[in-house]
Amino acid sequence: MRQLLPFYALLGLAGLAPLWLGDYGAGLLLGMTSAAILATAWAMFSGPTRYVSLATVAFYGIGAYVVAALAESQPWPVVLLAAAGCGGLVALVVGLSTLRLAGIYFVIFSFGLAELIRQLLTWYEVNVTGTLGRYIFTEFQPRDLLWQLLVLLAVTLTLSVWIHRSRLGLALRVIGDDETVAAHAGINLARSKLTLFVISSVLISLTGAIQSPRWVYIEPSIVFNPTVSFTAVIMALLGGANRIWGPILGAVPLYLAFEFLSAHFPDHFSILLGLLFILVVFALPNGVLAALERLRLRKGAGV
Amino acid sequence: MLSSTLILGLVLGGSYALVAVGMTLQYGIARIMNLAYGEFIILAAFATYLLFGSLGISPIVALLIIPVIAFGLGVALFQVMMRPLVTRAGGSGRLEVDSILATFGLLFVLQGVMLLAFGGNYTSYGFLDQGVNVLGTTLAANRLLAFALSIGLAGGLFALLQFSRWGLALRAVALAPGSAALVGLNMRRIAALGFGLGTALAAAGGVTVSMFQTFSAHDGVLFTMKALVIVIMGGVGNVLGALVSGLLLGLMETAVARWVDPGLTLAATYILFLAVLLWRPEGLFGKAAGR
What we know:
The complex is a heterodimer of chains A (303) and B (291). Chain A is an all-alpha fold.
């Protein structure tokens, strides 16, 4: 865990940043932190197992909606606990029904999960509560949310390091390499996959919950925006989904790039995003970190 | 009431069946899980709309033109984009992950292009919309035509796969990709052919759907999702299974929209999907496929 100490220090420094960055800077840092958590949490499960989850925004949106429903009546820690609980519960149900099967079923299910939850929520809001949107009023300043997200990022990364070194992490890497071998080695496939999927989903739900007060007004179509799932995957892939630092390394530059692109080319944003994604899949299948390492090795061997 | 739901459901199911057969070909033969599949359906729908609206070409004629172009497009796409992935994977499970990711990117590109070209609004055109009486239910003629065309196309394809030598080769690759090369089948050509054929069917589905339904640039994902569910229900690579499951899904959606709530059709699709996963993950009609 000692390797994480400089990182904690860096996060602490980032926490001081709002003092001289102002609100815009704090907002930017907040979005970046959230992107880093999402990418890391995604890679925590999908990296070692190679089960591509396209459902990031489903859990993110669940977190945001729990806040919208409870923030007025309950104290903040209770709201966060509820968000984590709801996300975990949905992950448990999805995982129980799909993770016992081949990976493709999981991918298909996760592909439609956000859309399904969005439709169910819209139906519920229109038919039961009678309104489509909800307001989120909290007393948090952007910097309060930033601090919370920084803590969550520290927790996420610590968990990621810890899992990587634990028996569970080893089990997952074996599963990713060859499920048959893993089963013969006595690994409980379903339980290992399920545990990690739930942990990753809870982290994502918490991110959505903490970030939601930034919106003030939310609707199902706002918080279940498929672009979130998309960016989390591409960030993790760019840096390297199998590395602990990979997702963060991908998240920081890509977040800034997306921020720039969506401001300057709003109409072409999704095309550019898609092209970038295809480029990453083709050119850097294992991420930048792995590519750099290979380059170094080749140089070393050549001399 | 019951008979009209039944008929409307079958009509919708006919289009779903056609579309799902295409996807099961792509996944079964070319081994590409194509998440951008629905975008090709919508692309064909917009193409039909343009041909009909600006050049006055009837959608029936469009059904002869567009799938042929789509076939070429599909083969080209396979050669340019999927072939390197197939080569890189070298027969390992990696192809599945890579193809999912690559086509996920493609989805956003195609959707972005369509949003740019046509905007995000719902589009439709009026074609053969006078009523026809079918067993006591008044049905728009375009729906009836779309149903006949879908079932005709899907059925014809099934017969072709089942009874022609060429279909035998395609089925052999779907059944045992490892052994098919041993009996002298050109795997590279057949994979490209399967992918192209799947794209052509997506386009055919898009043309028929556009005859009776409004569509928008956002709808591709929904079609992809439904096609995926139908493919799993029917058993991966099983054409007849996809046909029957497509009809079933159409029936169920129409029933839910009529008696429960039109806003819950996707939820119903997913409940059906869950039931299949829990009860028969190899598909309703499949022998153990998957993996």
